[in-house]
Amino acid sequence: MPHDVPPVRAPGPAAGEAPTRRPPHRLTRRPVSLALWCCVLVVYPLTVLLFRLRYRHAERVPATGPVLLVANHVSVLDPLACARLVWDAGRAPRFLAKDAVFRGPAGTLLRAAGQIPVSRGSSTASSSVSAAREALEAGDLVVIYPEGTVTRDPDWWPMQAHTGVARMALTTDAVVLPVAQWGPQRVHDYHARAWHPRLRAPAELLVGEPVDLSAHRPRVRAGEPVTNELLREVTDLVMTRVRDQLAELRGEQPPAVFHPRPPRPLPGTGSPAAGGAS
Fold first, then answer.
1. In order along the chain (278 residues), what is the average pLDDT of each group of 10 residues?
2. Closest CA to 72 of 223, 187, 243, 192
3. Could you tell me the pTM of the whole model?
């Protein structure tokens, strides 16, 4: 592991308890497919070249069990850094990604590696949520960028998110883990449509404490309808956690409201690796 990435350690034991260790990665990742290993062999060295990664509280990524990892979106390169975080934490990531990347040989590889296409605005859009829910029920770690594309906020704060993240959070037992990313936009500035080629650009990821949904999940399990209002409430709750963690990374005060997202996808724009899952 590169020296600039701190090793993932389990939280320290309470007084009087024996130290705890995370299981070996070969167990926490479970069997890794050949297709996923191919992806790792491409992504891992690429992130070593592109970023000087710093993780904060990577030990908060559960070693086992279903995890819905929710991140902000500042660059088309975000998924590379986030994939490294998850892999270094001993898990195998499954990304919700725009269906545009699932074309040709690369798409075949991504599907074989367990990644989940999102077809927003089509009659099959809900199938991505169902596929992600099935992955969570199987105990996998699913990564979602609820904004659906790189934020349009001029200062890179999160914009209003799609509500698919709330539907997954409410209808599964997954740990909902907010993660803030900052730094990949230094290599690719989406707003300026410009690359800034450089090696080892600083990039940080802050893993937050799991989002407490104890006031929401019981209502759904008791039969309360999953209304648009409830979905928006939970989505904003989760994204507020992500936004506040981003503020901690940046050492700045975040805006009080989310920047509005574009009214519809713009042709030829957006990060193909972002899947908002409306």
1. 52 52 90 96 97 97 98 97 98 92 90 89 70 95 96 97 95 97 96 92 98 95 94 98 98 96 60 60
2. 243
3. 0.88
